[in-house]
Write a structure and sequence with these properties.
heterodimer, A: alpha/beta, Aminopeptidase, 5 helices, 18 strands, about 20% helix, about 35% strand, B: 13-stranded mixed sheet, globular, binds zinc ion
Chain lengths: ~300, ~325
């Protein structure tokens, strides 16, 4: 294992920010794995640290293929992590909306550029992703449909679901989109939690990434049995939104199969406790996202269902 | 008449309401929409909205048409000095056109678009952010310039910046409305969290001039200045390479030569000048950093170059 500083940035008042990569094996740039780009992505960083542990062991056993190099970047924005902020410390911009970056641009554009210049050219790119709302995801893998993709590759992770997303205008400045545009086959792996550590989901994500690297012939690793991944288009999944606001209680858990009309959760008045809304499923399918916070506004996505 | 154009229930005993005020008089149905407050840390538009509304109230018989004022598209943001939509950390100007059946932000954005659509002209007032001060200007993407320029030049701004179209900007209110045929001008002026009375007055004259030209105003109006248009000119960006405290020595609105000393980045701990900041090109400083603390990459100034080969008029 080799530890490299990929990019550093001086701060007026803090120790220098050092974006650090851990490299395993030698030769062809085979896979890059990126963890936290936002300050609340603790689980994403944790999964990467677990990957470093696994790859260290594999490297010691000589289980990384010849002419293959793997790089893991556990955390890009630990500055924000250390002060409890999600986006960039000073101007609140999102590094994952700054790709491919610009070396002469604003601070977060420079960070994006510094990172991207080092993780570009890998054959596979894996990002540990999070969602902007508090909630839990069934571990799954997502790929942006940019026209350069081979969605069937998602099956090699052996997670329950692989989701294809049609990019929206605001996606065009994300890491994944730009990886694809520059010829890296890029995937987002969702490992359930964000600001807490979920060990089981982390296990699943680590095994999924190892399984994927093993299938591509980059490493040889033993992993638990995989799912036969079901591929689906994001537009064919259903979002169930809250029709009222108040105190939210889920009556179901992720991974469960539900029928149309089933009650998935309830919203009650925060003052008098009366039930103000029953959240019912509009389709039959499997719950793969569940909102997870005690209070909820109206029109908030509380469940996502794969039909 | 004020009305709520979009509403969403918040968790505890409160609704988020987006409001507008309609002022209508006379026979004409010509409609001007004055929109602001998408970014909760930008306040210049708040005073402009007040000025326009109160002036029309006092001279209501001069109005022949409809003026819709939307002072706060992101009311919770303004209320809490939050640039984005509080709780989501979401830039509202990346959510348009939204969706009636979408998330809260998408639903609000869709309602806003529906309500403004059909205006003859919409003016979307921004004021930079807390970091940068901007000369009163209108920004438009190259594909919309032909349609928008004839209106923009009436607005009494100093500068019209025609920039390349970027895919990510397709999620803005202005792009959405322009795509749907509602001519929308994006004004940037002043600095975040402050009101610059002088700029509000300048834009106020522009709004009244535009109303006169649209045939909506029968009263006397002040003349307007001729703006510099960016066409055929380059914009030079001055970014900091060091980290520290930026202290400018050039003034906002100055015309500088390439290489001129425009400020310093200093280190308060070591008492050293860590970067001598120089103009990257000749031209007019139309953006200048207001917030002193800088990192490598922080934008310090933007300079508008003279027309290549030609003299500045
Ligand atoms: Zn703004």
């Amino acid at each position: 294992m080799k530890k490299k500083i990929l990019f550093s940035l001086r701060s007026p008042y803090r120790e220098q920010l050092e974006v650090t990569g851990f490299c395993f094996g030698h030769g062809k740039k085979s896979a890059a794995i990126v963890g936290a780009m936002r300050g609340n992505e603790v689980q994403q960083m944790y999964v990467c640290s677990r990957m470093v542990q696994e790859l260290k062991k594999l490297e010691a056993k000589g289980h990384i293929a010849d002419d293959c190099e793997i790089m893991v970047i556990p955390c890009v924005n630990y500055y924000s992590m250390n002060i409890g902020k999600r986006f960039w410390t000073m101007d609140n911009t999102d590094i994952n909306r700054m790709f491919p970056g610009y070396v002469q641009g604003e601070t977060t554009q420079r960070i994006a550029d510094g990172l991207f210049s080092k993780i570009q050219g890998y054959e596979y790119g894996i990002q540990l992703a999070s969602f902007y709302q508090p909630g839990n995801f069934l571990p799954h893998v997502k790929m942006m449909d940019t026209g350069f993709t081979a969605p069937a590759l998602m099956k090699d992770f052996g997670l329950e679901y692989g989701i294809i997303r049609r990019p929206r205008p605001y996606d065009t400045t994300t890491l994944n989109y730009n990886w694809q545009i520059w010829g890296t086959k890029a995937f987002s792996v969702y490992a359930n939690a964000t600001d807490i550590i979920d060990e089981n989901a982390a296990d699943e994500a680590v095994y999924a990434i190892l399984r994927f690297l093993d299938t591509q012939g980059i490493i040889s690793a033993n992993t638990p049995p995989a799912y036969v991944t079901k591929l689906t288009d994001e537009s064919k999944t259903s979002q169930i939104r809250s029709e009222a606001a108040g105190v939210f209680k889920s009556l179901i858990s992720i991974g469960k199969r539900v029928e149309r009309g089933d009650v998935l959760g309830i919203i009650s008045d925060p003052f008098d406790g009366e039930v103000v809304s029953e959240i019912r499923s509009t389709v039959s399918g499997t719950i793969y996202f569940e909102y997870c916070a005690p209070l909820i506004n109206s029109n908030t996505v509380c469940f996502k269902i794969i039909k | 008449m004020t009305e709520t154009i979009a509403s969403a229930a918040l968790a505890v005993h409160e609704n988020l309401n987006i409001q507008k005020r309609r002022i209508q008089k006379g026979e004409k149905k010509t409609r001007l929409s004055l929109v602001t407050g998408t970014h909760g840390d930008e306040l210049e538009g708040q005073y402009l909205a007040y000025m326009v509304g109160s002036f029309i109230d006092q001279n209501i018989d001069m109005l022949d048409g409809i003026v819709d004022i939307y002072p706060a598209l992101n009311p919770m943001g303004i209320d809490s000095i939050t640039r984005g939509i509080p709780m989501f950390d979401l830039d509202m100007n990346r959510v348009f056109p939204g969706s009636k059946n979408g998330t809260m932000a998408e639903m609000l954005c869709a309602s806003i678009v529906d309500d403004i659509s059909g205006s003859d002209v919409c003016i979307d007032v921004h004021s930079s952010n807390i970091f940068l001060k901007e000369i009163p200007q209108i920004r438009m993407s190259a594909p919309t310039a032909q349609t928008l320029l004839p209106y923009a030049i009436l607005m009494n701004v100093d500068f019209i910046w025609i920039h390349d179209a970027a895919t990510v900007l397709e999620s803005t209110l202005a792009h959405t409305l322009n795509t749907r045929g509602t001519k929308t001008l994006v004004v940037e002026m002043g600095v975040g969290m402050r009101i610059t009375k002088e700029y509000c007055r300048q834009l106020f004259d522009g709004v009244m001039y535009l109303m006169k030209e649209l045939g909506m105003w029968k009263g006397e109006i002040a003349s307007v200045r001729e703006p510099i248009v960016s066409e055929g000119r380059e914009v030079g960006f001055v970014n900091s390479d060091a980290a520290g405290i930026f202290v400018p020595c050039a003034n906002f609105g100055d015309t500088v030569k390439k290489g001129d000393h425009i400020g310093d980045v200093v280190d308060p701990l070591t008492s050293e000048v860590v970067e001598k900041v120089k103009a990257v090109c000749d031209g007019l400083i139309f953006t200048l950093r207001e917030y002193p603390v800088v990192y490598g990459g922080s934008l310090l100034a933007r300079i508008l170059q003279p027309v290549s080969g030609g003299e500045d008029k």
